[in-house]
C-alpha cells in the first residue's frame, strides 16, 4: 500500500504543479489584457476629456458640476468598456454617456441661475481690449441664460449640433433619436431661444 500512496502523492504533486502553471500563465495573460485596457481607456480620456468637460460646462453653467459630470462619465466608461463594440463610434458613445450623466446629476441638484462673473474660457484674441472682454462675458452670459431656459433635450441639441458642431447623424447617435428629429427639434430649440431671450448669437448657429 505504501508504494501506491507514494505514487498517488507524486501524481497529485505533478497535477498541482501543472494547474499552478496554467493559473500563472492565465494570470499573466489577464494582466497583459488589463494593462492594454487601462492604456486604451487612458487614451480615450486624454482624447475626449475636453469634449466631455465642455459639454458638461455648457449644460450646467457650473464648473464644479462640469467636473463631477466629467469624472462620473469616465468612471462609467471604465465600467462599461466592454459595451463599446465599434471603436469608430467611441466619441458618440462617450458623449452619450456624458449626456445621460449630465441629465441625471442635474436632475438631482438645484438649478443654478447665477451666471459666472468672469468668462473662464481663455480668449483666443491676441491683445484683446477691456471692451472686448466685457462683450465676450456678456455674450457668454446671454448664451448660458438661454441654454438653461431650455428643457434638457433641446439644451443637448443646441450644445451638440450648434456649439460643438456635430453632424445630424452624430447628434442623433448621442441622443438616441432619428436624424429627422434632430433637425426638427434643433430648429424648434433655436426658435425658442430667439423668442424667449431675443438672442443674437450668430447666423451660423441659427442656420445649422
From TrEMBL:
<dbReference type="InterPro" id="IPR014284">
    <property type="entry name" value="RNA_pol_sigma-70_dom"/>
</dbReference>
<feature type="domain" description="RNA polymerase sigma-70 region 2">
    <location>
        <begin position="44"/>
        <end position="109"/>
    </location>
</feature>
<dbReference type="Pfam" id="PF04542">
    <property type="entry name" value="Sigma70_r2"/>
</dbReference>
<dbReference type="GO" id="GO:0016987">
    <property type="term" value="F:sigma factor activity"/>
</dbReference>
<dbReference type="GO" id="GO:0003677">
    <property type="term" value="F:DNA binding"/>
</dbReference>
<dbReference type="InterPro" id="IPR013249">
    <property type="entry name" value="RNA_pol_sigma70_r4_t2"/>
</dbReference>
<dbReference type="InterPro" id="IPR039425">
    <property type="entry name" value="RNA_pol_sigma-70-like"/>
</dbReference>
<dbReference type="InterPro" id="IPR036388">
    <property type="entry name" value="WH-like_DNA-bd_sf"/>
</dbReference>
<keyword id="KW-0805">Transcription regulation</keyword>
<dbReference type="Pfam" id="PF08281">
    <property type="entry name" value="Sigma70_r4_2"/>
</dbReference>
<dbReference type="InterPro" id="IPR007627">
    <property type="entry name" value="RNA_pol_sigma70_r2"/>
</dbReference>
<keyword id="KW-0731">Sigma factor</keyword>
<feature type="domain" description="RNA polymerase sigma factor 70 region 4 type 2">
    <location>
        <begin position="142"/>
        <end position="193"/>
    </location>
</feature>
<keyword id="KW-0238">DNA-binding</keyword>
<comment type="similarity">
    <text>Belongs to the sigma-70 factor family. ECF subfamily.</text>
</comment>
<protein>
    <recommendedName>
        <fullName>RNA polymerase sigma factor</fullName>
    </recommendedName>
</protein>
<dbReference type="InterPro" id="IPR013325">
    <property type="entry name" value="RNA_pol_sigma_r2"/>
</dbReference>
<keyword id="KW-0804">Transcription</keyword>
<dbReference type="InterPro" id="IPR000838">
    <property type="entry name" value="RNA_pol_sigma70_ECF_CS"/>
</dbReference>
<dbReference type="InterPro" id="IPR013324">
    <property type="entry name" value="RNA_pol_sigma_r3/r4-like"/>
</dbReference>
<dbReference type="GO" id="GO:0006950">
    <property type="term" value="P:response to stress"/>
</dbReference>
<dbReference type="GO" id="GO:0006352">
    <property type="term" value="P:DNA-templated transcription initiation"/>
</dbReference>
Amino acid at each position: 500500500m505504501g508504494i501506491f500512496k507514494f505514487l498517488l502523492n507524486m501524481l497529485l504533486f505533478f497535477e498541482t504543479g501543472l494547474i499552478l502553471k496554467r493559473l500563472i500563465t492565465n494570470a499573466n495573460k489577464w494582466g497583459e489584457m488589463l494593462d492594454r485596457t487601462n492604456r486604451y481607456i487612458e487614451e480615450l480620456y486624454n482624447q475626449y476629456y475636453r469634449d466631455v468637460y465642455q459639454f458638461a460646462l455648457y449644460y450646467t453653467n457650473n464648473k464644479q458640476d462640469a467636473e463631477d459630470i466629467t469624472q462620473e462619465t469616465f468612471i462609467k466608461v471604465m465600467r462599461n468598456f466592454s459595451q463599446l463594440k465599434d471603436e469608430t463610434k467611441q466619441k458618440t458613445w462617450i458623449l452619450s454617456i456624458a449626456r445621460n450623466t449630465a441629465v441625471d446629476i442635474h436632475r438631482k441638484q438645484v438649478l443654478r441661475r447665477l451666471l459666472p462673473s468672469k468668462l473662464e474660457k481663455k480668449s483666443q484674441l491676441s491683445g484683446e481690449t477691456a471692451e472686448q472682454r466685457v462683450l465676450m462675458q456678456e455674450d457668454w452670459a446671454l448664451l448660458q441664460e438661454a441654454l438653461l431656459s431650455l428643457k434638457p433635450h433641446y439644451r443637448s441639441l443646441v450644445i451638440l449640433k450648434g456649439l460643438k458642431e456635430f453632424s445630424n447623424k452624430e447628434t442623433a447617435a448621442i441622443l438616441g433619436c432619428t436624424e429627422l428629429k434632430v433637425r426638427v427639434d434643433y430648429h424648434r430649440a433655436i426658435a425658442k431661444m430667439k423668442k424667449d431671450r431675443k438672442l443674437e448669437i450668430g447666423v451660423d448657429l441659427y442656420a445649422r
